[in-house]
Amino acid sequence: MTMALDAPTATDALISLRDVTLAYGDVVAAKDITFDVRPGEFVSLIGPSGCGKSSALRAIGGLLDANVGSVAVDGTTVTGPRPQEISYVFQDLALYPWRSALRNVEIALQFAGVPRRERKERAMDALRRVGLGDVTERMPSQLSGGMRQRVAIARALVSDARILLLDEPFAALDEQSRLSIGAQLVRILEEEGKTVVFVTHSLAEAAFLSDRVVVMGPRPGVIREVIDVPLERPRHASLMRDPVFHDLTDRLSALLIDDSQAHS
Ligand SMILES: Nc1ncnc2c1ncn2[C@@H]1O[C@H](COP(=O)(O)OP(=O)(O)OP(=O)(O)O)[C@@H](O)[C@H]1O
């Protein structure tokens, strides 16, 4: 195993992966992955199922060690989870079914050691910001799928972590809700200057939300291309009728199709 050297990080990178190979025993999930994420950037990872997108997120979050290469956050090699700095929203939201929306958000603060008297106010504020200020006492079973997604997002936002790792957080939603919740999330993240790495299967979502899109090939995932998104912020739904948006999603789609044909 190659130990992480001090990563030759681009000077302006907050997150930096260098020649990273990730494996589960004999299964190589991703190979020679190199990319950077700058502070305040929103970067999406797209690619075919099983190409190692979630594994790359886990490596950034310190939940999976690189077998080869280095993963660094703020110039320091990642050696384990850093909950104060990095928070997650996973595909399966893992809300506690027996706790109200408010308590589900408060629990993140409890884990972070925030004093009880501060927790409620901060959790309420996070729920208000995702538009759930009037349903804070409802249990998850009394919320729609989209509302549950928002609770999970509020829970990730409530912490002071400056990096947010989002693994298909809107997977259960229809395309329209995905984009509107996504746009709302981006507004909040812009205000707070958070840095985001986002895994999605939706090319429209990747194009609409990101500053850059990392396109991965089939397992073991390698990086096919990193594409700059030439769209200004703030972004509005009308953008999706813009030819530049269509060119971009066409290009992403062509890259993914190329890949599947090259490996079939
Ligand atoms: N805990 C694990 N143990 C063994 N193999 C795993 C484990 N997690 C993932 N893998 C394998 O690693 C490869 C990459 O998985 P990963 O979840 O990173 O892909 P992905 O691109 O996020 O997939 P999807 O788009 O389907 O969510 C897959 O072949 C998967 O089967």
UniProtKB/TrEMBL annotation:
Domain ABC transporter: 15-239
Record keywords: ATP-binding, Nucleotide-binding, Transport
InterPro entries: AAA+_ATPase (IPR003593), ABC_transporter-like_ATP-bd (IPR003439), ABC_transporter-like_CS (IPR017871), ABC_transporter_ATP-bind (IPR050166), P-loop_NTPase (IPR027417)
Alphabetical list of Gene3D superfamilies matching this protein: P-loop containing nucleotide triphosphate hydrolases (3.40.50.300)
Claim: Nucleotide-binding is one of the keywords in the record: yes
GO molecular function: ATP binding; ATP hydrolysis activity
PANTHER family: ALIPHATIC SULFONATES IMPORT ATP-BINDING PROTEIN SSUB, TAURINE IMPORT ATP-BINDING PROTEIN-RELATED
Name of the protein in question: ABC transporter ATP-binding protein
